[in-house]
Write a structure and sequence with these properties.
It contains 7 helices and 5 strands. The chain has helices at residues 4-22, 49-60, 64-71, 87-95, 128-175, 179-193, 197-207; strands spanning 28-35, 39-43, 75-77, 100-106, 113-120. Strand 1 (28-35) and strand 2 form a beta hairpin.
Length: 213
Amino acid sequence: MRDEHADLDATLAVITRAAVDLVPGAEHADITLITKGERFESRAGTSDLPRRIDDLQQDVQDGPCLQAIWEHETVQVDDMEDEDRWPKFAREAARAGVLSMLAFQLYTTESNLGALNLLSSSPRAFDGTAVSIGGSLATHAAIAVIAAQREEQFRQALSTRDTIGQAKGMLMEKFSVDADRAFELLRKLSQERNVPLYEIARKLTEAGERPGD
């Protein structure tokens, strides 16, 4: 079976490598994703440093990446040693060897947000050309994330449909009823037990459980 997460990671890795190769001043790159439930993930880092910077922002709950994500904007840091927007983060980032940053918000969905982050050990490393190229790469990253999300939703929908179909088939065979009646039995069980219909169907197919059990 194809691994959609591996496919997405491979695509994002191409984008972050391209960022380091093509964006003037970029030495390191990664993509930060905040998924439903505010899970914070560093993906496709070109080195360990971007993940450490992401972890730092997660710890202090502040920084250019988070601002880019939540404020829907591109955030540029010219010199961490002179930065006063996020004093605690900037101080620790400078100690880690990051003096310039660019963070581009990825336009994904309301429940899945992200940013493309570019790092440099030099102050004032990024100019207008870097912002322009980085913005284009961020658009490609957003498209890849959205495509992966839609594919996963489609896969889950197919799985749900197949599971319900299998459960209906079991009920039709056991009780000699037609497809409509079998679906009605599933729906009734869902209502009586206050359990989603898919979960009722999954339980039936996995355990071979009769509706009255």
